[in-house]
Fold this protein.
Amino acid sequence: MTDTSAPFLTPAGPRRPGERALTAVGLAAPADNPADSSPHVFPDGGSWRTEIPSVEGPEALAIVLKESSRLDVPVHRVSQGSGVWMLSDAEITEMAEACAERDIELCLFTGPRGTWDTGGSTRTASGGAGLRARGHDALAGCVEDALRATELGVRCLLVADEGVLWTLHRLRELGLLPADTTLKVSALIGPVNPASVSVHERLGADSVNVPSDLTASHFTEIRRVSGVPLDLYIEAPDDLGGYVRMYEAAELIRRAAPLYLKFGLSRAPGIYPYGAHLRDAALDTARERVRRGRLVLDLLARHGADGGMSPLGSRLPGPLNRFSLKD
């Protein structure tokens, strides 16, 4: 019979939620399989970085920067979802300068996208072609956004189309986009198996936002074929499932590193494409996303799993596999 009066023992290495108490009553979890741990890290040696998504303009960014300082939430990247085309040159410049002052990567979405043009099929039960860029004009619009944003100092572009990704990668390789531009694949087209993640990496992705409902085993499968950084909503917006996976954060890092922990928000109103009519919602949700980040970081600390974060200011993904431009 288990002696529940014995003191809790702290296990070696990070512990799982409730581990010591469950062990005391004979319900210990099975041991971790070392083969499941990701062999990959960021080039700086870190296993994870942080991202605050849905930062739609300078005012929301100011809130994020203020709250991250107040709550001591380290931020590696902030991203925006409405698109470059929804921001003025002055707004982009203000955001780029504010992020540069704090060594934070700013990522802006390229557009237009399928849900905001004439593609009515995106609103059918099947979803049609989803958020991909429809036709030459939409592709050209995404390229125009990329050129404009990088000229204004932005060095991370968010894409939701494989053709846009490959085109921007080719432009980067040709020197028409800055060589240090990084390309981030949106959760809205996120790949869900090892082969598709590998294809996105080869098309030019520097980080890939995979859907938040992938299992730990799925991440191990991906890590056997690709070392591209993954982005994952620890809390996902409702239109991406509304999943809240805070208690899995340590295990997700172990299985999926190198990993961006994205602090999203469920049960929140949609704000894309953003405008002043959505100001209160955008600012309130920006503030709460930072707070959610603090909760995740506190949880990691309580579990002894808060080590391995990349140094602040780290942004590049390291060497990745690419398709040949000669093919």
Q: What stands out?
A: The two ends are 67 Å apart (CA to CA). The chain is about 35% helix and 10% strand. Residues 14 and 305 are 5 Å apart (CA to CA). The first strand starts at residue 48 and ends at 52.
